[in-house]
Specification:
Blueprint (H helix, E strand, L loop, with lengths): L9 H37 L5 H10 L8
Helix pairs in contact: 1-2
Length: about 70
């Protein structure tokens, strides 16, 4: 949380918590999408897809590959 993102009252704090919850959900959804793409990329590589090396290179350079959110 940034210092300028401080709530001034209880209602403001509630709104910030709601906003934070929405952001957490967005990040979780994005992480799940990246995981699914990684699984699909591995499947394509196993099947001998022509772009398998490019897909795997991207997969292993992805910062979300090992983190569990």
């Amino acid at each position: 949380m940034m210092t300028e993102d401080r709530a001034k009252d209880e209602m403001g704090a509630g709104n910030m918590l709601k906003k934070h919850g929405n952001l957490e959900k967005t990040v979780e959804d994005y992480a799940e999408t990246v995981r699914q793409l990684g699984e699909r990329s591995r499947q394509l590589a196993d099947e001998g897809h022509p772009d398998r090396y490019r897909n795997l290179q991207f997969l292993y350079s992805c910062p979300l590959k090992e983190k569990q959110y």
